[in-house]
Amino acid sequence: MENEPLLMIPGPVPIPQRVRAAMTRQAINHRGPEFGAAYADTVRVLKTLFGTESDLYIISGSGSAGMEAAVANFGRDKRIVSLVNGKFGERFAKIGARYGTVTALESEWGTPLDLAALEQELEAGAEIVTMVHNETSAGIKNPAPEVGKLARKYDALFVMDGITSIGGDEVLMDKWGVDVAVVGSQKCLAAPAGLAAIAIGERAWDRICDKRPFYLDLAAYKKSGSSTPMETPYTPAVPLFLALHEACKMIEEEGIAARIARHRRMAESVRAAAKAWGVELFPKIDEHHAYSNTATAMRIPDGVTDKDLRGTVKKFGIEIAGGQDHLKGKIFRIGTMGSVGAQEILATLAAVQFALRKSGFAAGDGLEAAAEVLLG
Ligand SMILES: Cc1ncc(COP(=O)(O)O)c(C=O)c1O
Q: Start and end of every Aminotransferase class V domain (predicted)?
């Protein structure tokens, strides 16, 4: 048995052995046929996870590099409206402000986005909408189809962060009217950290800015991506590409529908445990919003400290996440992304339940509730 910490944070997630092995091999030429074939095959699988037939490229950089690529290529000097109900929505607004003029429509973290205010901004001439599909910091899933519809109605581009939804939850980029979408390798894809994939639809290509960044110039990615063998403009993180390719093979073997169903079941089991414990889920959802299927955010009960809760869980070799920024000490988060399953979830929930009770909180039996859900 490998005695490694079990990462149940919302990314990075545990990497299957096959995927780890793929990045330890001897170097290959990044302008040769083997790399080109691996890149092309990875793109083919990723397109199915994005729900798109549009162009898709892989950037050597984390998810934020993908977010910046989207804004820098399509948002320079544009009127951007950023929907914000958590840390990553805020990040999108901050990136937008470096390139264009941003109106941030802010809701409390973990509460619904203001779609009426969005429509007003679009009516008033906003050209780009940014939204985080799965707001990991608060455990809320935002309404991509509704926002896509509004963006189309007013002829704006819709740029979506799918960093913690794509590969774990249903994303239908083309159907929903998403023009640019981004995923990160270390989340639901269960690959190592360090790559972002970005898909770009026709409407976005038609509006690409003349003044673009150099390293993240998506027109350059398109040019190199059209060559045979398929290439990237600059030397890519080859070992990470090979690992991501292996991760995509595993995703195909599982099947997308099965993978999404597994993610939903895992998150549902955590929510069932929370209910049985008497622990409040953090997000406030409405008919347009949902609980995240990849990261569950819960309030830390009165009388329990973040330090004790996560500290006790860590003593069992399991890491869960705390809150970010003003939510530090107020919430804890369990990631259910990638290749983890019932074994990891039951161990995590057992450790959390023990930690809650040890801190004096009279938690009910969450394990029983979660196990019922996991068995289906
Ligand atoms: C929704 C979301 N967007 C963006 C990011 C940033 O990604 P990265 O840390 O890979 O740059 C994260 C990371 O947790 C995320 O969860």
A: 21-324
64 lines ligand 1 (CB under 6 A): yes
How far, CA to CA in Å, does 195 sit from each of 220, 224, 244, 344?
A: 17, 17, 8, 25
Ligand 1: atom nearest CA of 67 is: 4
Range of the domain at 97: 17-253
AA identity, residue 201: G
Contact 151, 176 (CB under 8 A): no
pLDDT tens, 247-257? Answer: 999 999 999 99
Strands across the sheet containing 295-299? 295-299, 331-335, 321-322
The answer to the question of residue 1 being in a domain is no
**Mean pLDDT of the region 157-170:** 98
pLDDT more than 70, % of the chain: 99
If asked whether residues 150 and 263 sit together in one domain, one would say: no
* CA dist., res. 328 & res. 348, Å (int): 20
